[in-house]
Write a structure and sequence with these properties.
single chain, 377 residues, Beta-galactosidase, Chain A, domain 5, 2 helices, 28 strands, 6% helix, 34% strand
Amino acid sequence: MKKALFTLCTVALLAACNTQAPLTQSGLNPKDFESTYNGSPTALYTLTNTHGMEVCITNFGGRIVSLLVPDREGDMQDVVLGFDKVQDYFPENNQTDFGAAIGRYANRINQGKFTLDGVEYQLPQNNFGHCLHGGPTGWQYQVYKVLEADGQQLKLGLTSPDGDNGFPGTVKATVTYTITEDNGLDIAYEATTDAPTVINMTNHAYFNLSGKPATHRITDDVLWINATHFTPVDSTFMTTGEIRPVAGTPFDFTTAKPIGQDIEADCQQVRNGRGYDHNWCLDTEGAIEALAAELYCPESGINMKVYTDEPGIQVYAGNFLDGSVTGKKGIAYPLRSAICLETQHYPDSPNKPQWPSVVLRPGETYTSHCIFSFNAY
């Protein structure tokens, strides 16, 4: 009888193990992303192509959790920072923007104030006195609804009510992630509103193209930016309103160079940004087919090209990473272990009418498009 009972228990245990969801290629357990936040369910979604590229996304914040691409040896490397379970993304546990779909307004708005059609709006001041990334409960901390999902595309939707973090108008937004057969990650944004508002969406992936953020610093990687001008900032990271040529400054990446070459140069703008945390004004004139930026990792051979129809790109070189946040596989992310390339309208555009407009009105549709394309050599 004891032997029979043991056999039945063993069979039951094996059956239970066999019904568990398999791990993703990147090693994530989908069960660790099944939760709720503010009453809405969260999950993990996996996109793949026939070349083995894999992108894992959670609808909490529309976040890219992992992104696997082949290196020069054909080995798959996870090239973004993130967490192993969804609870680590919750703001009460970690206030990070890892991989998030940012809204309503990516980057900073000066003193959290702007005036639209003669009405002044006050937003949260959650970063050096300014409103950053839509405020402390921006879209990166909201649960997106899954509108469409298959093995190569994920469409997420979110409704932001009038007054959300002080912004006017009820906005309905979508972000669509598509993995392409040429090893690209295509990100398309759309939004509509029922009242005049401002909007500026982006993705905040932290890239380390070596796949080894514990040891590899992005200062060794080589960056090229299709931009002859940038927008200087003051000591609170706020754009001053000036558009300055990059020529003769540490901000000149019109010829590709290592990120670390000038990141600690004796330059007030470098000091203000604690390195690079600035917006470059792209020379692509909104053409999605024009190359906006290119990043290459000599260690892995992985190369990433960035395409966008946006006028700007924010380059943030991981200056605030300090080893205090522990991510996937128990890795504590050290200083400059990743770089963000955030396609966007310029920071604080609502207060700088001379810059491309971010105003969205009823009857209009906001669109933004970005492609991260990978190869290796």
